[in-house]
Amino acid sequence: MAKFKKWMTADEVEAYLDEKYGPLTPESQAILDAHVAETAAQIHVMQLVREARAQSKLSQRELAQISGVSQPELSRFESGQSNPTLGTLVKICSALGYKLTLTQK
Question: Domain containing 54 — which CATH number?
Fold first, then answer.
């Protein structure tokens, strides 16, 4: 049986999970794909906000004062420990001089 290790490649994780639980069904694959896409989008937004703040030469404390979002909340968001609400994200974007928009893919 494959052994779980702290650091594994995606292929090693897949092999481990297949051996332990069996291959994914089409339904479970769709759920996994949706979760991966959601996580990727969250990471992308986090990186965009961090880059915009850096380009604006604002500290987290300064952005917190301008946006009305607490510095600890900004830190948790930028480090990936939490996800802001849509309202919080709008406040952050507005304080950085950006407008949050949705586009059809």
Answer: 1.10.260.40
As a whole number of angstroms, the distance between CA 3 and CA 7 comes to: 11
Quick check: 71 and 60 in contact, CB under 8 A?
yes
Q: Does residue 37 form part of some domain? A: yes
Q: How far is CA 59 from the centre of its chain?
A: 20
Number of domains the chain is built from:
1
Tokens 């702290």 found at? 6
Q: Which domain holds residue 17?
A: 10-95
- pTM of the predicted model, to two decimals? 0.73
Q: Nearest 5°: phi and psi at 17?
A: -65, -40
Q: Enter the DSSP assignment of 97.
A: T
The number of beta carbons lying within 10 Å of the beta carbon of residue 17 is 15
**Would residue 3 be called left, alpha or beta, if left means φ above 0 and alpha means ψ between -120 and 50 degrees?**
beta
pLDDT tens digits for 20-60?
888 888 998 899 889 889 989 999 999 999 999 999 999 99
